[in-house]
Amino acid sequence: MTGPLTGLRVLDIATIIAAPSAAALLGDYGADVVKVELPVQGDGARAFPPLKDGKALWWKVTNRNKRFVTLDFRQPEGRAMLLRMLPHFDVLIENFRPGTLDRWGLDRDTLWAAQPSLTILRVSGFGQTGPYKDRAGFARIFEAMGGLTYISGEPDGEPMHTGYPIGDSIGGLFGAVGVLAALWARAANPDAPGEEIDLSLTEAMLKLMEFLPAKYKMLGEVHERSGNTSQYSAPAAVYATKDGRWVSLSGSTNALYANNCRAIGRPDLIDDPRFGSNPLRARHADALNAIFAAWCADHELEGVLSAFHAAHGTIAPIYSADQICDDPHFQARGILKDVPDEDFGSICMADAVPRFRTNPGGVRVAASGIGRHNAEVYGEMLALDEDELGRLAAKGVI
Length: 398
Known about the structure:
It is a single chain. This protein is 38% helix and 15% strand. By secondary structure, the protein is α/β, with parallel strands linked by helices. It folds into two domains: 9-208 and 332-394, Crotonobetainyl-coa:carnitine coa-transferase, domain 1 (Rossmann fold); 246-317, no CATH class. It is elongated, with a radius of gyration of 25 Å.
């Protein structure tokens, strides 16, 4: 393994998307991540479509860079094994409903008794406290109650979810950041006690919304839906091209606005008093967007992009997955990588982000089958031999 987190050990006992994503990000940077699943049934995300030959492709990406063991730590013998393993780890990641681990005899004090310096990341829908703490959590719930869904969609239409559970991905990012912050504090004070991180996925979405609460509290205004147009800059929208493709335009500074005007052959718009500043342009957004939309509708995609690139404007094609894979810049950067996979030989996924020059991380392997590393991990950490592993498997402990 390489990467800035080489030597860090993470125990991932979480399920589905958000918390396992946090563990995978740490693995991208070099951490040794061991994922624990219940025997036989495993993580529910193993059944999430899209599927190829009955194998979940999403699973293989979200749980990359991990070793896989099975363990039923609800059973006394399984709980004892988990506690014996903890001294080998720096971080524990879990996403059970608040109080669940306590009921199984794995409360915070018990975990810290086994590993006093353990960083515990607890991921839940609404946090470890508060009246909603026992509610179930899914990405659409976080997005809905965190404010994202309300502001997405057309002004006269229904609120819209994205076509991907972005609430889970955002939660994974905040989870990884929280762990790294705790580890930095530990690096400064190695003798400090363990840390417990309470990550509410709904709060993560709310934090992403940044100014929405301030706008309401200070101005008495609720941020509403505006479709693909921007409420804080103009021209900024999605436009159709002559050949039926789509582009997205932005650029809030005066200099970028001027470049965009030159791109469509309308330098006269630069000095138009209606558009002299970004607040003025936002006030007259409908007029500006109509001008740019009409120009794009008269030109094919390549002509649109060439004109804006020549003028140093700020426009981009709206890519589908096939266009992402075919883009020469992404290919030159090597962001899409064919990663070794036990079922398909290899599987394409995005490599580690961001990149480190002197000690790079990377995606090393796709997610494996259930319990693939039982013998390896339990032999390494608990010195269990083949006979003992067989006995535990027969009892349903592993």
